[in-house]
């Protein structure tokens, strides 16, 4: 087996059992099937959003309710061309179908900004996510590093550039709605981002030999302002709004974007709008593709509620930069993973000690009489 093959899931998906580095603790494993769909997350048509009166009022109300209840909703009639979506999806699938050595030409391990990598969640975590990704940073435009964008399949650059531009426009429209809902100028949330960053992450979740033991992407909230996710019809995006007690699998809707509100959006609204708590599961029947477009504030943007309603307290003690907010979030997540690992090791140690004690009790004593003497 060539050494490059081990680094991708192309080889591992052929195994009958899951490699231990992907096995999650029992409390983190999927509780709902990837295709047990729920319609609880609202699907909102944006047709008529640009009308100052009429439909716009109702659309805004629907979006606000979704953000208050879930922090997640789906949009259709969003104005992004169906052919562009189809081209983007086709090119993404073609990329992941490339031989491992071709994908690894864009290897982003070792701190490179953009490219291809397996798993990629948090550094220092023991358990990997069952996914491959290719990612590129598209805004601010002046900071684009095209050397980190794949040059295959043919047409990738032109299509991904157009896709990035259209999704930036859609994200800003949605932020306008949320700004108005907070009683602010419609560009308030966009301005709070200072110079909006955009990162596009194309996720590929191959078939998995033991999907019940792992996750495609572990439970998390997005750190940024708002995320637009394009998913195929397979299913696997799951959400919770009761801190993980119950989960739902979001119903895939052809051509729709799933909109997730992130931590930054949550803090700017003083907690009024929820940051979507979600994860991705995998399956053994078919691969799944999703494309996440993260709209984030500039690193130096201030994170603090833009408006605090009467009788409310601010959800943050003091204003901090987005870079500092992100650093704290990552540090907390890594520390929680470390503590959980230690607790697990300690429990294993205690269980082993208990097992040894039981074995000692089960051992025949040296001075015990033979069975025939006892029965005599």
The Cα radius of gyration reads 24 Å
Measured between the Cα atoms of the first and last residue, the distance is 65 Å
Strand order of the largest sheet: 2-3-11-8-13-6-5-4
Q: State the helix count.
A: 10
Principal-axis shape: globular
Estimate what percentage of residues fall within beta strands. Answer: 15-25%
Low-confidence stretches: 1-6, 362-376
Mean pLDDT rating? 89
InterPro entries: DIOX_N (IPR026992), IPNS-like_FE2OG_OXY (IPR044861), IPNS-like_sf (IPR027443), Oxoglu/Fe-dep_dioxygenase_dom (IPR005123), Plant_2OG-oxidoreductases (IPR050295)
Pathway: Secondary metabolite biosynthesis; flavonoid biosynthesis
Protein name: Naringenin,2-oxoglutarate 3-dioxygenase
Keywords: Flavonoid biosynthesis, Iron, Metal-binding, Oxidoreductase, Vitamin C
Description:
There is one protein chain. This protein has 376 residues and is α+β, with helices and mostly antiparallel strands. It is built from 10 helices and 15 strands. The strands form 3 sheets. It has an 8-stranded mixed β-sheet with strand order 2-3-11-8-13-6-5-4. Strands 1-10-9-12-7 form a 5-stranded mixed β-sheet, with no helix packed on it. A two-stranded antiparallel sheet has the order 14-15. Helix 4 packs across helix 6.
Compose a concise summary of this entry:
This protein has 376 residues and is an alpha+beta fold.
Helices and strands in order:
Blueprint: H1 3-6, H2 9-12, E1 37-38, E2 43-45, H3 55-69, E3 72-76, H4 82-96, H5 100-103, E4 115-118, E5 132-139, H6 156-181, H7 188-192, E6 197-205, E7 217-220, E8 226-231, E9 237-240, E10 248-250, E11 257-261, H8 263-268, E12 277-280, E13 288-296, E14 302-303, E15 320-321, H9 322-362, H10 371-375
Parallel strand pairs: 1-10, 2-3
Antiparallel strand pairs: 3-11, 4-5, 5-6, 6-13, 7-12, 8-11, 8-13, 9-10, 9-12, 14-15
């Amino acid at each position: 087996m060539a050494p490059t093959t081990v680094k991708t899931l192309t080889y591992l998906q052929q195994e009958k059992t899951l490699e231990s580095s992907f096995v999650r603790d029992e409390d983190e494993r999927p509780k709902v099937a990837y295709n047990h769909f729920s319609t609880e997350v609202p699907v909102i048509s944006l047709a008529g959003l640009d009308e100052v009166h009429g439909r716009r009022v109702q659309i805004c109300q629907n979006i606000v309710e979704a953000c208050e209840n879930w922090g997640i909703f789906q949009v259709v009639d969003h104005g992004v061309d169906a052919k562009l979506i189809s081209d983007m999806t086709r090119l993404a699938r073609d990329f992941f179908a490339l031989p491992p050595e071709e994908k690894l030409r864009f290897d982003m391990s070792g701190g490179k900004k953009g490219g291809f990598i397996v798993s990629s969640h948090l550094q220092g975590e023991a358990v990997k996510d069952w996914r491959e990704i290719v990612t590129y940073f598209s805004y601010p435009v002046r900071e684009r590093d095209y050397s980190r964008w794949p040059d295959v399949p043919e047409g990738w650059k032109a299509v991904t550039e157009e896709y990035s531009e259209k999704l930036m426009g859609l994200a800003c429209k949605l932020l306008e709605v949320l700004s108005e809902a907070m009683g602010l100028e419609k560009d308030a949330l966009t301005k709070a981002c200072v110079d909006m960053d955009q990162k596009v992450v194309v996720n590929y979740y191959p078939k998995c030999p033991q999907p019940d033991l792992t996750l495609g992407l572990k439970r998390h909230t997005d750190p940024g302002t708002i995320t637009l996710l394009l998913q195929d019809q397979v299913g696997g995006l799951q959400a919770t709004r009761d801190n993980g007690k119950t989960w739902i699998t979001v119903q895939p809707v052809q051509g729709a974007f799933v909109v997730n509100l992130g931590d930054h959006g949550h803090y700017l609204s003083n907690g009024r709008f929820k940051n979507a708590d979600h994860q991705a599961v995998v399956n053994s029947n078919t691969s799944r593709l999703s494309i996440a477009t993260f709209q984030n504030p500039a690193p130096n943007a201030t994170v603090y509620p833009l408006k605090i309603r009467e009788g409310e307290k601010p959800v943050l003690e003091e204003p901090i930069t987005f870079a500092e907010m992100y650093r704290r979030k990552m540090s907390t997540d890594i520390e929680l993973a470390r503590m959980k690992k230690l607790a697990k090791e300690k429990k294993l140690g205690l269980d082993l000690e208990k097992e040894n004690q039981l074995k000692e009790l089960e051992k025949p004593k040296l001075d015990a009489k033979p069975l025939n003497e006892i029965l005599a």
